[in-house]
Every structure is written in structure tokens, then in C-alpha cells.
Amino acid sequence: MNRTSAPGWHAASVQGPRGVNVDAVAVSPGRAVFALADGVGDSPGAAHAARIAVAAATRSPYPDGPEAALLAAQEAVRADASAGDCVLVVAVAGEHGYGVAWVGDVRAYAWDGTCLRQVTRDHTVAQYFRDHGQAPSPRMEHLVTTSVRTADAAEFGSAEVPGPAGLLLTSDGVHKTLGLSAMAELLRRPANSADALTAAALAEGGSDNATALFVECPPVAADVATVPFHVAA
Q1: Domains plus CATH for the chain?
Q2: Which of 84, 86, 70, 74 is nearest to 38 (CA)?
Q3: Which of 28, 119, 127, 163 is deepest in the core (most CB within 10 A)?
Q4: Which residues of 99-131 are buried (b: 16+ CB within 10 A; e: fewer)?
């Protein structure tokens, strides 16, 4: 398990029954930019892409917003021939909450101290079929329709989390194993919730890497340099 914590937020990542942990998280020192990535596939190249993406996203100046951070991640991944591909969610703290941008099936949730509310929408074949009134097969849940390498800026997902609010970012190894109510119950407990979420995902038989980043405090924008702190294998 790889883990880090600081006042107001904590993150945890566990490998699970995979050859490589291809998840990564990064947070800028002033807690203005948060990023979580999940590599596409099970390879060192996918893990490298995830680390590059979160590092570049959290170096992006936070006033530029989450879409600019995602574009910075995309530029960094595309510039590295040794990197594979990944999906990514970025949240940027502002004066009145968070701005969120994403590609793929990583997620962001708003937390009010009692309930979780999903603010992202999966970019997957399964979600496409649901949107068109058709039942997807289980395999479609894992087929993403956008990624850091491939998405056009017009395909980026975008959402707002009005403050004050907590924030939860997760890889699919967490949210596709645990239900919304189970995740909310774990967040209500007085413990390192990121640890609790990832441990519970594995205990429930999760077959993927499981990564969570939980921000407990209301967002406070800060004029700080954004040097990333990443958690990855």
C-alpha cells in the first residue's frame, strides 16, 4: 500500500490482484489542485502515464481551471514516447467550490458530511448504451470512450461542486466495487477514509487497483506554487 496524508486530505492506493499499480494521485501544496489518474492496461507504461498526468495537472496554475490542468496533462503524456495512456480527473479549488474536469471512468463526488453525490459521468461504452436506452454487457463498463492521449478538449467532462463541500476522487477499483451508500458509510467513520475505502474494495473482492483521494475541508484557493505530491507504485 502507498499512502500519504496532510491536514484536510488523505489518499491511499492499493495494487490488488494486478501485476502493476497503474493508479496515481497528486495534490498541489496549497490544496488548490487535486488529480487522480488510472492507467489504461496493466503495464509499466500505463503507470508511467498516470504519474506524468497527475504531476503535470497539479503543476498547472490553479486559476486557469481544471480543463487547463487536463490539457497540461495531455500535453505531457503525448510528449513522452515511453508513456502509455490513462484516464484522469482533476479538481481545482476556487472561491465558491471546485471545478472538475475528467476523461474516462475515474470519478469525483461531492461530500456534505452525510451524503455523497457523484458529479462526474463515466465516459464508457456502458454509459453510452445506457444513455441510448440499451442494457450494456458487464465488459462494456471497462471500455472507456475518452482518455488523456485520445480525447479532444471538446470531449472533456466538466462539472462544478458548489462549496463548502468535501471532495472524493476515486479510481474504478473503488467505485465499481463499492456502492454509493457503502462509500458514504465509510466516510462517516472517524478514520483515514481513503484507507478505509481502498481496503474495503479489496475485501469485497475487487480485482483492480483501488485508489481514493478524500478532501475533508471546504476548498480554499491559495496563491501557491503547485509542485505535485504523487502516490503511485
Answers
A1: 2-232 (3.60.40.10)
A2: 86
A3: 28
A4: bbbbbbbbbbbbbeeeebeebbebbbbbbeeee
Q: Which phi-psi region, left, alpha or beta, contains residue 175 (left: φ > 0; alpha: ψ -120 to 50)?
A: alpha
Identify the residue with better confidence: 11 or 5.
11
* Exposure class string for 183-194: b at 16+ Cβ within 10 A, else e: bbebbeeeebbb
Task: List strands edge to edge, sheet with 86-94.
Answer: 157-162, 97-103, 86-94, 33-39, 23-27, 229-232
Hey, which residues does 168 pair with through a beta bridge? Answer: 109, 214
Residues in a beta bridge with 87: 38
Q: Are 106 and 120 contacting, i.e. CB atoms less than 8 angstroms apart? A: yes
The amino acid occupying position 159 is A
Nearest to 123 by CA among 143, 99, 148: 143
Does the pTM surpass 0.70? The reply is yes
Q: How many residues does the chain have?
A: 233
Look up cell 489504461; give the residue.
40
All three cell numbers of 22, joined, read 497503474
Least confident of 4-8, 115-119, 120-124, 215-219: 4-8
